[in-house]
Amino acid sequence: MSEARYSMSFTTGGLFRNESLKLIALYLELGDWDAVRDNVSTNNILQARTINSLRRVSREIISRLKTLSPDEIKLFTGISPQEQSYLLWLAVCRRYRFIADFAVEVLRERYISLKNDLSYEDFDSFFNRKSEWHAELDGIRPATRHKLRQVLFKMLREADLLTSKNIIIAAVLSPDIIRAIPAENRQDISCFPVFESDLKDI
Predict the structure, then answer these.
(1) 59-97: buried (b, 16+ CB within 10 Å) or exposed (e) per residue?
(2) What domain of life is recorded for the organism (predicted)?
(3) pTM score, two decimals?
């Protein structure tokens, strides 16, 4: 029996940190994501070139930000760009289970096994392995698969979890971020390259 289908619609952009800042500020003002979406479309908050691009990008960002808890949203505007990127990586992992599985099974596993590099071959191997259980992956064209890999590595670099030479960077999660993650989502920390022992005093 196959597992629940993966959503693979993350071919747009990267982490969108600057855009997310604008949308979160708007959400804190309006208190409703539908109102944020309408405001973005009406006023072109993201300064997109076309209305279709604006709608596609805003829809993608909002779908990620909606996975953040109220405490995580409130924390966002008062923390460093690095910590904001961590929260956005968390949101991406919650939005896309494929990325979360990759983060846990490949990124973190390599880190805690003291293998400090991450290659495109690691992605390809993971993709092929998951294809055995997820028929939806078999229908993805090589060009789209290449794009998915490219975007995923771009997001890892923007989150400062990977260098330009594909060396894994340990996440340094602050007590504020740890506290903001709901207790029922504690396992989400496994999406970061971090030793559990590093968190024991937080």
Answers:
(1) ebbbbbbebbeeebbebbeebeeebbbbbbbbbbbbbbe
(2) Bacteria
(3) 0.93
